[in-house]
UniProtKB/TrEMBL annotation:
Pfam families in UniProt: Mpo1-like (PF06127)
Source organism: Piscinibacter gummiphilus
InterPro entries, sorted: Mpo1-like
TM annotation in the entry: 42-60, 66-84
Keyword line: Membrane, Transmembrane, Transmembrane helix
Protein name: DUF962 family protein
Length: 116
């Protein structure tokens, strides 16, 4: 028997999004999963369209803008992951942290902390 029987579930590889115990631990992983500039640009465009769809839906009282917002946000992001990053979006394993990461990265792109 090796030493692996002593490992706790929290000792999972850091490439597994489920291994992070806080968003602060998760965000550097999230950024590494968005290293391709084209993917970040698609996320930025998708997030901007989400905000525009939601604002338009509120302005015109159109609840059908919510599904359109989701389609824009996830569609642009997932396309970037599958086509440019060649990875699976973290939203499949850590949906809340991934959602939070989308908006923190969006802010970081707007403020110039990350290159667009």
């Amino acid at each position: 028997m090796g030493r692996s029987h002593c490992l706790r579930p929290s000792a999972a590889p850091m490439s597994d999004p489920r291994s992070f115990r806080s968003f602060a631990e998760f965000y550097p992983f999230y950024l590494a999963e968005h290293s391709d500039r084209r993917n970040r640009r698609l996320h930025f465009a998708g997030s901007t369209l989400v905000l525009l769809c939601l604002a338009a839906g509120l302005w015109w009282g159109q609840p059908l803008m919510v599904p359109l917002a989701l389609l824009c946000g996830y569609g642009f992001a997932w396309f970037g992951h599958f086509v440019f990053e060649k990875n699976k979006p973290a939203s499949f394993k850590r949906p809340l942290y991934s959602f939070m990461g989308d908006w923190v990265m969006y802010k970081d792109l707007w403020t110039g902390r990350l290159p667009l």
